[in-house]
Amino acid sequence: MKPIQVGLLGLGNVGGGVYEVLRRNQEEIQRRAGRGIEVAMVSRRDVAKARAMVGHTAQVVADPRAVIANPDIDIVVELIGGYDLARELVLEAIAAGKHVVTANKALLAMHGTEIFAAAHAKGVMVAFEAAVAGGIPIIKALREGLTANRIEWIAGIINGTTNFILSEMRDKGLDFGVVLKEAQRLGYAEADPTFDIEGVDAAHKLTLMSSIAFGIPVQFGKAYTEGITQLSSIDIRYAEQLGYRIKLLGVTKRTSAGIELRVHPCLVPSKRLIANVEGPMNAVLVQADAVGTTLYYGKGAGSEPTASAVIADLVDITRLHTADPQNRVPHLAFQPDAMSDLAVLPMSEVVTSFYLRLRVADEAGVLTKVTGLLAAGGISIDAVLQREADQVGGEGATSTDLIILTHDVKEGAMNEVIAQMQALPSVLAPITRIRKEELN
Amino acid sequence: MKPIQVGLLGLGNVGGGVYEVLRRNQEEIQRRAGRGIEVAMVSRRDVAKARAMVGHTAQVVADPRAVIANPDIDIVVELIGGYDLARELVLEAIAAGKHVVTANKALLAMHGTEIFAAAHAKGVMVAFEAAVAGGIPIIKALREGLTANRIEWIAGIINGTTNFILSEMRDKGLDFGVVLKEAQRLGYAEADPTFDIEGVDAAHKLTLMSSIAFGIPVQFGKAYTEGITQLSSIDIRYAEQLGYRIKLLGVTKRTSAGIELRVHPCLVPSKRLIANVEGPMNAVLVQADAVGTTLYYGKGAGSEPTASAVIADLVDITRLHTADPQNRVPHLAFQPDAMSDLAVLPMSEVVTSFYLRLRVADEAGVLTKVTGLLAAGGISIDAVLQREADQVGGEGATSTDLIILTHDVKEGAMNEVIAQMQALPSVLAPITRIRKEELN
């Protein structure tokens, strides 16, 4: 049987990995897929560079549209990234009746609804395992492995750059800026790290997981995104003393009021497996009604881990493209006509517990005032940690750190009380507040 | 569209869970599957008990063959367990053109080759996600999620009973017998716990994972199986002091010489995530060439976790039964005509490192003699731990524990040296030897 003909749009880090792994494991992959899978054509602006990588094993062109126009190509793999051109090319490939595989989380988080609708209408598959958590088959687990369940929540470490930075800050007691430079030197962070450190990349991935977990449309615009740039190593140390680690989590949860969709730094109990996921590794924790808790761990980025996910999609398409399109696995796990319109909650409605650090004057009655405000706001306290006073500035004036862990409270109510605390004369600096999840 | 009609053979703990979860999550499951999934018929010897569970929502019969004979049934779910009758019923269901879902690891480990061949010839699916690691979608991950990879090894905690016992022995410093009774009281161990504590259940599951990871036939007869009944809490304590936990692992590895297929207690570095999987939880660690290390964690048993896996298979069949049978996901991940004949290695050929505990007379030169034998056998030492001498018996005779961690060595060579050590007059008791895996 003629091998499935694959066209790669883009032959950079991931594209090169896809080409290399398909070549290296060709025999093993064919034994699984029942049919050869062959990169027949690649597009890259720098044709010479592409030619150097693939030699004459594949046709090389500069124009990605030449790949889409090639009638021999069965599956188009979009690896050029970005929004506009990628969107056009994916829609053109679908219109041309090609199955599409993409690792482009940004594209799908922004334009997924349009793209999946076009694919459904045309009866082709758009697969995107590589778009979330790299080589971890988490899309497959959510879309196919847990179909019996009512999924309750997902909490994931889904950005390796920020997890590496937080691990280093904790291990070495260094501050964010220092570690970011190291991460850039080691290649764990890009020259412009904004998407990673501000949580945007994690929010793209979380948006896709939320959609397939709860059967809601892809709506990145409604995701709350808070990065790690404001974290200081002192909070990591205090958290440690209280039995917690600080991780950048993507959390999406189904509540009676609506869907939570949020990325932010978070205290997690040190004893949880996910709290012990260090360095650039990723992990996704899923809570569902029948199976209970499951966790999926692995490399979230890199050439070959990402290629592993892209090729898994190629094998799925090879195995299943003969299925009646109405009976295939739906792109977003739920049938297009059976999506839910559960609203995404504003953060003020989201309920979590909190870690608060207040820099206060070391004088009688401060704790009473602070806890009084919490009580008046109906917020109960889980734990208090007060450090010994230390000298700051002259005149023997002393101040101290007051750390408070709260029980669950609506974020809106918490913010009001924080504003009241901030107004106290004995509170000497901006209050630090980090959300906390017990994940049980 | 008419719901898929499911017939359950057996309505005990798992069958009840399947019925309950299908009922409770009916709407959500249909939104995913694109079609209703309905338990139309159940068989149980005690018809009254079955009737009490399903009321009049399903037809209830005593004879499982009446379910297979029912032309309206699309999928037969085998949940009666055991070998002979289960084998007959599954083969009869296949012959009748039904798709089959089973949670019966013992059946597949023993008769899988025959059953999958029959299913392939008939063009029906036999799905068995529930047979390995309960609710964790590990079969799907290996068979579909990692298809790009050359899988190198799998190491799993795939028996909850033994992991619970080992966790308790470690936490409470209790001995095996005591904890086993507690596990039986709590329902974590059966009245006859042999299959669990002797590693047979784990070996059944490992045999299936090995087959789909490496594309080899299911061959339980060649699995090496060693349980936890001989473990003493003192070895758990010594291992802890050396930075290790003791787990019952199922390990299958592809080497140039052949396939390792073995279940036995094992020292694992405490810092590995899998070493921190406690209580009845399961976890499977997979090493593959492109993706690197991935780990899958969750409940390995129980009514609803197992039902979660059974129903995932029902949804897969509902979604994909229209695919050309030659193009569906192969039962054992590899195409039937592309299986490998890699031989399973005898244990004497297996290479691991070892933990050795020798009870020796507290006299000069013992360590020299022992290490001399290791050196002569070409076995290098990773670490030595010698306890202070303690009084045993009268006459002021004293003895002490000598703990040795070796580097990698062939098991055959290790056994020869252990026999030589055992023959030393200063070695006062049978030598304890536990294999060790660094899992990196």
Please explain how this structure is put together:
Chain A has 15 helices and 18 strands. With 440 residues, the first copy, chain A, is α/β, with parallel strands linked by helices. Chain A has three domains: 4-137 and 303-332, Rossmann fold; 138-299, 2-Layer Sandwich (Dihydrodipicolinate Reductase, domain 2); 351-436, Alpha-Beta Plaits. In chain A, the strands form two sheets. In chain A, strands 7, 8, 9, 10, 11, 12, 13, 14, 15, 16, 17 and 18 form a twelve-stranded mixed beta sheet that branches. The first copy, chain A, has a six-stranded parallel beta sheet with strand order 3-2-1-4-5-6, with helices on both faces. In chain A, α5 (84-95) runs parallel beside α6 and α6 (105-122) packs parallel to α11 (200-214). The radius of gyration of chain A is 24 Å and the shape is elongated. Chains A and B meet through α1, α2, α7, β12 and α13 of A and α1, α2, α7, β12 and α13 of B. β12 (292-299) of chain A pairs antiparallel with β12 of chain B.
Question: What can be said about this structure in brief?
Answer:
Chains A, B: Belongs to the homoserine dehydrogenase family. Two copies of one chain form a homodimer. Chain A is of the alpha/beta class.
